[in-house]
Design a protein that fits this description.
Layout: H1 3-20, H2 28-35, H3 39-51, E1 55-57, E2 63-65, H4 67-89, E3 92-99, E4 102-109, E5 124-126, H5 130-136, H6 140-149, E6 152-155, E7 162-171, E8 174-184, H7 192-213
Antiparallel strand pairs: 1-2, 3-4, 3-8, 4-5, 6-7, 7-8
Length: 217
C-alpha cells in the first residue's frame, strides 16, 4: 500500500469516527460498532484525536466532538451578538477562548469611535492578562467576582488607559469562552463592570442559548 493510500485510509477512519459521535457522546465500543472498526483501532485513533482537540473525552470515558468544532460554531454564532453588544455599549466587543496557557481572540467587533480599544481576531495573549484572561484562567479573585456579579473586570492592568469586563460563556456546564467589552478608561464612569457588566452577561447568556439550539454534541 502506498503512503497516499495509507493516508487516505487513515482519513476515512477519522471521518468515520467523527460521524459516529455527531449525534452525541459514545464509548470506544459503541464507535467501533457504528464504524465497523476494531475497538483497539477506535481507541487508539480517538485518543490521538483528543490530543488535537477533534474529540474530547468525558469523565465516563465516552468521546464527543471536540473544541475545534465548538470554536468554529462559537465564532459564527458570536458575531451578530457581538455586533449588538458593540452597538449597545458603543465599545469594542470580543469573544476570547483558552488555548493552553494563552487566550485567543476568536472574534471581535470594534467600536466605531476614534479612541477605542481594539485587537484583531487571532490575537494571542498570555493568561491571566485582562479580564477575559483572568476569567479563562479561573483566577480565584476573578471567580469570586463572577459568583457575586456574573462578570470580572480589569482596569489598566494589561494596557494603561484601557479597561475591560468579561462574562463567561457556558455550554453544557463547560466554560467555552468569555465575552468581553473593552473600553478606554477615559469613557468609564463607575468602572468597566458597573458600566457594561450587565450587558456583557446578557450577551454571554444569549450566546450560550444560541449554542444550545445548535444541539452540538
Amino acid at each position: 500500500m502506498s503512503d497516499r493510500e495509507g493516508g487516505n485510509r487513515m482519513l476515512e477512519r477519522v471521518a468515520a469516527i467523527l460521524d459516529a459521535v455527531e449525534t452525541g457522546p459514545a464509548s470506544a465500543s459503541e464507535i467501533a460498532r457504528r464504524t465497523e472498526l476494531s475497538v483497539s483501532t477506535v481507541h487508539r485513533l480517538a485518543l490521538s484525536m483528543v490530543d488535537f482537540e477533534f474529540l474530547r473525552r468525558d469523565s465516563d470515558g465516552r468521546f464527543r466532538r471536540g473544541s475545534r468544532f465548538v470554536r468554529s460554531a462559537l465564532e459564527n454564532a458570536a458575531l451578530p451578538i457581538l455586533t449588538l453588544l458593540r452597538d449597545s455599549t458603543e465599545e469594542t466587543a470580543q469573544l476570547w477562548v483558552r488555548r493552553g496557557d494563552d487566550r485567543v481572540c476568536l472574534a471581535t467587533v470594534d467600536s466605531m469611535q476614534v479612541l477605542r480599544a481594539a485587537l484583531p481576531a487571532g490575537t494571542r495573549q498570555p493568561l491571566p492578562a485582562g479580564s477575559a484572561g483572568r476569567l479563562l484562567a479561573r483566577e480565584e479573585e476573578a471567580w469570586a467576582s463572577i459568583e457575586r456579579h456574573g462578570w470580572v473586570e480589569s482596569v489598566g492592568v494589561r494596557t494603561p488607559g484601557l479597561g475591560s469586563v468579561s462574562a463567561p460563556v457556558w455550554l453544557g456546564g463547560e466554560l467555552v469562552g468569555a465575552i468581553c467589552v473593552a473600553v478606554p478608561l477615559a469613557r468609564v464612569e463607575d468602572g468597566p463592570g458597573a458600566d457594561f457588566g450587565a450587558q456583557a452577561v446578557e450577551a454571554a447568556t444569549t450566546l450560550a442559548g444560541v449554542m444550545m439550539t445548535l444541539r452540538l454534541p
